[in-house]
Amino acid sequence: MATLKHIAKLIGRHRNDSLNERERRELQAWCDLCDENRMLFERLSNQCLVSNILLELYSTGINEEGAKIRLMFPHKKQRPFLRALQLVAIIMGLLLTGIAVYSLLHRNRDKKITSVDNPSKDGLGDSLAPDIHRVELKLANGRIVYLDSNINGHIALQYRSVIYKRGDEVRYEWSTGDAQPELEYNTITTPRARKFAVELPDGSKAWLNAASSITFPTAFIGKKRIVQITGEVYFEVSHLAMELGAGVERKPFVVNVTSLPGTKGAGAAIEVMGTHFNVNAYGDEPVIKTTLLEGKVKVANRLQPGLTKQTAILSPGQQAQVNGDGHLEVEMYTDLQDVMAWRKDLLIFNDLDIKLIMLQLARQYDCEIVFKEPVTGHYTLSVMRQTAIGQILEALEFAGGVHFKVEGRTIIVTP
């Protein structure tokens, strides 16, 4: 006799249209055993019903017990049979913790939608607990300061800036004392699985995602404020003006992004006055993305000699994309929650290729990814950063089309 958990998985695979013939016969036999089984199967196969209950669960706070009963008897308040409630409990538990996937909300049958909401220390994630890596501040003289230590307070003096650390943030404050002889540059680098924040000498703030860096002068004394980044950084840029002859002129803030490895492009430059925006420029991803949340920015591609330069002015909600050939495109990006999820310790992937999902998981969980065979498919995934990676992998497997094997800190991916 098949276990309830096994039947739950068969129903999940049926919802994804990924049952093989043997599994289809097995599920049909279970449905034919009694009317209760068939009714439950029909309820759990009703995408609209399940989705509405999940939405109500998240938006109004009905408890899981109520959600289970709603699945069994959507128009009645009576309690279901114990066996039925047990199976619904398994299904709802899977839906609510991400081990099951609700699919076919869109016509694209390759899209799988997964919800992972409850962090867990169980399963495969234990074997992939992050190694100890350090957030580094590289001073102008080459000295390395580890910023993830418990030590707070004064760190160093660079040019006219005094560097202070407090928790997961460093702050550069302008000093009225004697300046060091020449302008200096500092670099902050985050490893995999770590984030950090810095308040720059002009009061602008930058938040670094995992595996990212920012290089900046210890004082903005020229006509422009210029920084260089890799990886992903969110900026809140302060307005800054300078005296120029008889008047005052605003001092632009420029973010330079290096080219993607092995491409024709030379990166991108983002110029702003005072605004909030996010730049995603990981070297192992195919596109440099600049998303504007507030204010206005100008994005320009930086090309090798002989190629055409393009520029675009972004309004809030727009995203500029520079691909490997240096081509710049702008599109309306209405779901800014996806872009800013990492700031809230969330991972949200919206109809994303499995290869790009695995790249991001590798950065966030500090692991290596090996594709043994070509794997295709797009998934929509919402997960808390604290969730064990084993739970995420199980959710993706349940969606169908992909399997994982964990060996040490390496995840092997197969169809």
TrEMBL record:
Membrane spanning residue stretches: 81-105
Keyword terms of this UniProt record: Membrane, Transmembrane, Transmembrane helix
Boundaries of every Protein FecR C-terminal domain copy: 347-413
Gene3D superfamilies: 2.60.120.1440, 3.55.50.30
Keyword Membrane attached: yes
Domain called FecR protein: residue spans: 187-298
GO molecular function, one term: sigma factor antagonist activity
InterPro entries named in the record: FecR, FecR_C, Ferrdict_sens_TM
PANTHER family linked to this entry: PERIPLASMIC SIGNAL SENSOR AND SIGMA FACTOR ACTIVATOR FECR-RELATED (PTHR30273), PROTEIN FECR (PTHR30273:SF2)
Name of this protein: FecR family protein
Annotated source species: Niastella yeongjuensis
Biological classification of the source: Bacteria, Pseudomonadati, Bacteroidota, Chitinophagia, Chitinophagales
